[in-house]
Amino acid sequence: MTAIEKRGIVVLISGTGSNFSAILRRSQAPDSQFFISAVLSNRADAKGLDVARAAGIPFEICPHQNYPSRAAFDQQMQRLIDAYQPYLVVLAGFMRILSDGFVRHYRGRLLNIHPALLPKFKGLNTHQRALEAGESEHGASVHFVSEDLDSGTVIAQSRVAIVADDDAERLAKRVLQQEHRLYPAVIQWFCQGRLALRGEQIYFDDRPLTQAYQLEGEISHE
Ligand code: GRF
Question: The sheet that has 59-61: what strands, in order across it?
Answer without folding.
Answer: 59-61, 34-41, 7-13, 88-91, 110-114, 137-144, 154-161, 213-215
